[in-house]
Amino acid sequence: MPKIKPDKSKKLTSPQATKAEKVPSYGAKDIYVLEGLDPVRKRPGMYIGSTGVDGLHHLIWEVVDNSIDEAMAGYAKNVRVELLPDNRVSVRDDGRGIPVETHKQTNKSALETVMTTLHAGGKFGGESYKVSGGLHGVGVSVVNALSVWLKAEVCRDGAMYEQEYVRGKSKYKVKKVGKCGANGTKITFEPDPEIFSTVEFNRKKILDHLRQQALLTKGVKIEIIDTGEKELFYHSFYFEGGLISFLKYLNRSEKQLQEIPFYVNKEHEKMEVEAAFVYNNEVETQELSFANNIYTPDGGMHLTGFRSALTRYLNDYARSNDYIKKDGDNLTGDDVREGMVAIVSVKLPEPQFEGQTKARLGNPEARTAVESIVGEALKDFLERNSGDARKIVERAILTSKARKAAKAAKETVLRKGILEGLTLPGKLADCSSRDPAESELFIVEGDSAGGSSKMGRDRRTQAILPLKGKILNVEKARIDKMLANKEIRSLVVALGTAIAESFDITKLRYNKIIIMTDADVDGSHIRTLLLTLFYRYFPQITEGGFLYIAQPPLYRIQVGREATYIYREADKDKLVKKAGEDVKVSIQRYKGLGEMNPDQLWETTMDPANRLLRKVTVDDAEEADRLFDVLMGEQVAPRKNFIEAHALAVKNLDI
């Protein structure tokens, strides 16, 4: 244990004196009571999850949720979201309008009470809402608290009322400002830059959320208008099909296995259950779950009930129709869900969400309701659609066989590694450090680049793993075939985390895994194959922020006696133009890492002091999943359509 040397230059005081000087007072005067919306401004993350991009957009979701609640209650048919200049947003609906009469408990207008008081609203009792997305009752008041300015406009019974607020505090009492036609509410707000790291909204993120809400709320029109740009942007969503429309949208790029999608929409003890699924020819499973139109990314009781019903009734059908022998193993949940796209939506009076951001539904009765309704409907579906039932069961049995074969192959690979003492691949030039925090693994294309990078690296902290040729496209291969690939197996052993259910992120040997490929078409292809591998089989590495892409220079430009490395095409043109015609300019285009000397490779691409690295992140997992399917999957048509649609946007195409 290290010793701490006393500082003899300071005068020592008695313990009593030190205590009096250092211990802060703690009495009644030190107990602070945060009134109104002060708690929200003090700890915003408790209410909206974060003060980053997701938290910023959560403000819009909270206001839109109130409008959707009006629609689910049968009072609204139209919702309009407008993106205004200066990062302002307005949300308008044609619902009943927030009440404006005096509230007996607060002696303020009901509108002001709702806007400035936590846990105030029409969702805690009475018959105002049978179901609603807002359980905590903090939605619009939290938006008010975290906005530098907010204005509420309400039309009720032919009269227009309004009130403005600054950081959650009203500027004036609710006032009647004129007449109006149809009832409704309009909330316009400007996020507080003192709270959020950014106040710039992402239109695509908003579009995706509004599309989702429209798909979940059939018969409601949701519009978005962006007036903040030079050109006016308008888009609207309207779906009559509900989850069937949603299913078609999610599965739009895939070849459908079954002819008729499964769909059920029934009520069970005051809880509405809606579920739909379809199988395709891919290996990925996509499950979305919602409670009162709120997306629950971590699932919950409703999703558990769906999975339980699916596994039980598919096993029952398979056994009763002799697809599985009497002494055969049951199909597992993973077996019956592979290749399935499913949506489960429940609407219940008092949802119990876990956490303020409502990521998981905790109501036990939701599991009972979903399991009962889906089970009964699935039994009927399988009996009525024997052709689809056969395809689904045969698909699940094939998955089961492949799973067992893959497990045996994986265990063989892992067992071999254990018997050899987890021997690292011979081609790996490992670093001497055993501290993952300072260790880096460069995955390099080819032996030539591998040789240069091995000679140019910092041997203490940088490891080099050269890969020969293009690795297997794992989007088209199962794990047993994948683990039989020598290059992938070398990478798995080098990472140290194992794979699939044996994966352990705590055993990751390097905290920076850097993909370093040539700046040409082949290099881009290899990089895409590696990204596919990491996305499908090592998602925790990406989520943990451990995966990077190296940015080697495109050019070495010699202007007179001075040489400069250029990483972007635009910078090359600027430098050449700046040099003028009277100066000799020599331009060298790098297409391969192997063309660089070890010292050049170190200086431009590997030296932490000079290099450019791009961290790989997944902002939209659903969209990333779809794009990997399109670009790397079996189906040619979706890939062709994607290329044709985006051909004009391509930059730096190698010809």
Q: Briefly, what is this?
A:
With 655 residues, the protein is an alpha+beta fold.
Explain what this protein looks like in three dimensions.
By secondary structure, the protein is of the alpha+beta class. The chain has three domains: 39-237, Heat Shock Protein 90; 243-403, Ribosomal Protein S5, domain 2 (2-Layer Sandwich); 424-552 and 615-649, Rossmann fold, CATH 3.40.50.670. The strands form five sheets. Strands 1, 2, 3, 4, 5, 6, 7, 8 and 9 form a nine-stranded mixed beta sheet that branches. Strand 17 (440-445), helix 13 and strand 18 (462-467) form a beta-alpha-beta unit. 38% of the residues are buried. The model is unreliable at 1-21, 25-34 and 417-422 (pLDDT under 50).
Helix content: 25-40%
Category by helix and strand content: alpha+beta
Please name the CATH topology of the largest domain. Heat Shock Protein 90
CATH architecture of the largest domain: 2-Layer Sandwich
Q: What is the domain total for the residues? A: 3
Q: Supply the number of helical segments.
A: 21
Give a short account of the largest sheet: 9 strands, mixed
Q: Assign the CATH superfamily of the largest domain.
A: Histidine kinase-like ATPase, C-terminal domain
Number of strands: 24
* General form: globular
Sequence stretches where pLDDT stays below 50 over 5 or more residues: 1-21, 25-34, 417-422
CATH classification, class level of the largest domain: Alpha Beta
Gyration radius, to the nearest Å?
Answer: 30 Å
- Return the average pLDDT rounded to an integer: 83
Distance between the termini: 63 Å
Strand percentage lies at 15-25%
